[in-house]
Amino acid sequence: MSTPPVLDRGRAAYQAHRWSEAIAEFDRAERENAIAAQDLECLATALILVGRAQDGVDALTRAHEAFLGAQDTAGATRCAAWLGMHLMGLGDRARSAGWFARAQRLVETDPAAGPGQGFLLIPEALGALYAGDAARAADAFDQAAEFAHRFGDPDLIALSYLGRGHARIMIGDPEAGLMLLDEAMVAVTAGEISPIPSGIVYCGVLQCCRLAFDLRRAHEWTRALDHWCEARPDMVAFSGQCQAQRAALFILHGAWGDALAAAESAKERAARGDRDGRFSAWYQHGEVHRLRGEVDLAESSYERAAQTGYEPQPGLALLRLAQGETKLAQSLIRGAVDRADPAERRWMLPAVVEIELAAGDVMAARTVADELDALQRTSTMPMMQAIVDQAEAAVLLDEGDPRAALLRARRAWTRWRELDVPYEAARCRVLAARACRALGDEPSASMELDAARAGFIDLDARHALGATEALTVSEAPGRAGGLTPREMEVLRLVAAGKSNRLIALDLYLSEKTVARHLSNIFAKLDVSSRSAATAYAYRHGMAE
């Protein structure tokens, strides 16, 4: 019997990733009673991918019934297991548990019918992982992989490798974990995996890169996810998560305008149906506003992120710190760390160090810095090393060891600069300035503060810029006319008769920066010319 044309068109559209067209043709075929169980399963997949999750669940239920009617236990079990997982993602735990129980019963009646038992191990393994029991999770994912290989199911193989990689990272073996993730991604990029497992693997791998502080892989796989989404223009599922990940990378690299645009796109796609992208979309939106010093906008975004059921941390605690509510920030971050699963906890630790030091609890900050250092010993990731050096520099400063702090701050700055992370690099220069000042090296402190200010100005990081300006004034009082050490150097060279170009060469600055310093000098000394500034310098013993 020949296949009805409507079904041929639906299958062709599905294979070409034209999900909306496939849905229309499969719907027509179902109305004409000309659709098989496998086609109903494809219809369900397409509906979920365009953001119609509940309609997809309904279609998958019909596919399950059709497989049962055709006495295809493997197909019925697969649908039941996926129904359990989709409903779990929708927050419908009661129905999810019911479908998992049905899938288990089908496996027990026909254990040789397919990899159903392996699929049923996935939620069990995830539960262990998010409860912090990485060893039990790894064991369950290993068992799932055994079923996957026994039955040759590529979807289950990829999902089990994803889980095994995540568990290995949590156990403290990131190198082995990342290799497993790469293996899962090879299967996805080769087109061996069906659409929904592919999206799960993409997003799961990016989350694991974040947990392992692997910036290189995060870039590589974000680009791959971006291309995958672009090739499926009417796909909603996973696309919001992709945009949120792009926003996070833009934030790191100082492209905050692009980050805001990506976060807006993530919000729009989340509203259209990518439920898993809602938190990250609003959180990254809040992060840009916090870094820019836009307090009200940041607070509003974090509030929307919190409405998804996840805590917007450490961003909200850092916002409270920026507002001067140090004790509240300390309470928020301590509570968030206590409640977080081990994976998310490690991502919050740098903020814990910063907040504990601001609150004056150096011992608590030292404990966390040591924990970060222990994590770094199992990792070769440059980002992890930069984080550890920066945290250690901050703690050493407050412990009264500015010489060691200066070494770590400059090492962290070098790592951040190599990673092209300008905001953290500028913050390291502030740490270096504080260390130089504690060592009595005012010229070097001034140089570091000038560099930090320039970085914050380029980024439009208003709060950090204000704090740096305050540090310049408050920690170096007593200079004639309120000049900073760098301004005093410029004034001495002006009094020596040097031009802006020669001053710039002497101090390794741009002529534009020298002109800015000179403008500040004129304003502070209430003079209007180089000759008047020179006279002031001689009167106050500042000229050589």
Task: Describe the secondary structure blueprint for this structure.
Blueprint: H1 5-15, H2 19-31, H3 37-49, H4 53-69, H5 73-89, H6 93-109, H7 116-130, H8 134-151, H9 154-171, H10 174-189, H11 195-211, H12 215-230, H13 239-252, H14 256-272, H15 278-292, H16 295-306, H17 315-322, H18 326-339, H19 342-358, H20 362-376, H21 382-398, H22 402-419, H23 422-438, H24 442-459, H25 462-474, H26 485-495, H27 500-507, H28 511-525, H29 530-539
Helix pairs in contact: 1-2, 2-3, 3-4, 4-5, 5-6, 5-7, 7-8, 7-9, 8-9, 9-10, 9-11, 10-11, 11-12, 12-13, 13-14, 13-15, 14-15, 15-16, 17-18, 18-19, 19-20, 19-21, 20-21, 21-22, 21-23, 22-23, 23-24, 24-25, 26-28, 26-29, 27-28
* Low confidence ranges: none
CATH topology of the domain at 425-539: Arc Repressor Mutant, subunit A
Share of helical residues: over 70%
Report the C-alpha radius of gyration, rounded.
29 Å
CATH superfamily heading of the domain at 425-539: Winged helix-like DNA-binding domain superfamily/Winged helix DNA-binding domain
The geometry reads as elongated
Mean pLDDT: 90
Number of helices: 29
What's the number of extended β-strand segments?
A: 0
CATH architecture of the domain at 425-539: Orthogonal Bundle
Strand content: under 5%
